[in-house]
Amino acid sequence: MMKITPESSWIWCLCSLFVWTSELPGFHAQDSTELEVSAIAENLTVPWDLVWGPDNHIWCMEKSGRITRIHPDLGQVEEIHQIPGVYQSFDNSGAHGMVLHPDFPVEPFIYVNYTYAEYRGRLSKLTYSLASESVVKEEVLLNELPGNISHNGSRLLEGPDGYLYFSTGDAFVGWIAQELDRLGGKVLRMDWNGDPVPDNPFDNLVYSYGHRNPQGLVFAHDGQLYSSEHGPANDDEVNRIVEGGNYGWPLIEGYCDTPEEEEACESINGMPPLAVWSPTQAPCGLAYFNHPSIPEWSNSLLLCFLRAQQLKVLALDGGGVAVVQEEIYFKEELGRLRDVLVAPNGRVFLATSNREINGWDYLAQDTDDRILEVRNVDYVYEEMPASSLTELFLNRIVEQSTEEQAIFPQPADYQVHILIDKEASSASIRMYDMLGRVVLEAMKTEVEVAGALYFPVSDISPGSYVVEIATNSGHHFAKPLMIRR
């Protein structure tokens, strides 16, 4: 079983440039910590964005617009939706960013960014239906985003202030990154309806500007925001994003280290990057790590690379304003790495990007693309049981509600939920029509989620009804219900 240090991993891979197999590397030693790599899911096609869901599943959006929900332990892949009309070029246009509403699935919205034409992108809000287990509606929030065959960004994430943050690329038109009335080359901040936050620095959606092609965006534990950004043929960057900051593109590439750039930095008050790499290595997905599962990675940024085919661990100083150490992992062992995800219990997941159609398809193996897990073999990870979306929904409703005997939604379509006393372990249900006839009866139905019942009404005709509930803990009540489709 192979054991290598981060440094020796880099040296070993130089001897086998562009040669790798579908076999995963064994164990990687980082000081006293041994890391194991294993495959969670296989046979995907360019998974672009990984999101940890409140149901303790990995939510994945592929470049084609396919959204899947993946069980992190069993590897089961459930297709949630295929976004229609995603435009994919020979290069990198397609579906790029995804985030779930902070109160998902009570607020059943999935936010996505994708290109729908060669020069156009959009931000949409998808509505997910628990009853049909599918997306039933798309509402376009921003429909005229700059787009191109590449340079579209992007990432979406919730900020610690509760707002939606969205990074966009310059769409190969560098000057728009400096134009505050254009949405390309920016980090945007908005509410969950797509409207500007009232205290944004320029009275519009723009939070920061002067970006080229940012494909990583993450908040650290202290609320500081970081972004990774593709350079042209040089000067890839990691930046610490501040409100109102100008990051220089196209006037400045990397550090202000030429006379022209020094003059530009002074004139625009340009923000310096935290780290720069030349020639280009194509940085992509970015995550923040600060968990005891891998103590050597505490207070670090985890950064994926496409061209360089590696994961970098960038240790931050105590204030989060400087990179003080850089370690390289999996150099040319896994192929191109598109995204990295850190679960709340310290598990780390990587997405490969080997089936891209922009000239790198020869890297792909029979099992690509894959989602891989990197874990400490000696650490006991906290269990985070994966749950069904219905179970999660009911638990959220029970947690948020102070009212028993509520029935919802009103009107209902295919499924009904009722809040009952939390002591009940079973309940009997009768539904009556307006003539007093029993149209549904379920005796001693087991309560799967404490404080809540749910049952289907898809076979019940639209109309007005009364639902009667009797629990085994002695509670009895009746409530009106309207069914409408």
Main features:
mainly beta; Neuraminidase; disordered N terminus; 2 domains; 485 residues; four-stranded antiparallel sheet
Question: Using only CA atoms, what is the Rg?
Answer: 25 Å
SS field, number of helical segments: 3
Low-confidence stretches: 1-22
CATH classification, class level of the largest domain: Mainly Beta
Number of domains: 2
On the 0 to 100 scale, the average pLDDT is: 89
Q: How does this model look, in words?
A:
With 485 residues, the chain is mainly beta. It folds into two domains: 3-376, 6 Propeller (Neuraminidase), CATH 2.120.10; 399-483, Sandwich (Immunoglobulin-like). The protein has three helices and 33 strands. It has helices at 6-14, 259-268, 389-400, and strands at 3-4, 27-30, 33-41, 47-52, 58-62, 66-70, 77-82, 95-100, 109-117, 120-129, 134-146, 155-158, 164-167, 186-190, 206-209, 214-219, 225-229, 236-241, 275-277, 283-289, 300-305, 310-316, 323-329, 337-342, 348-352, 371-376, 407-408, 415-419, 426-432, 438-446, 452-456, 463-471, 476-483. Strands 1-2-3-26-25-24 form a six-stranded mixed sheet. A hairpin with a 6-residue loop joins β6 (66-70) and β7 (77-82).
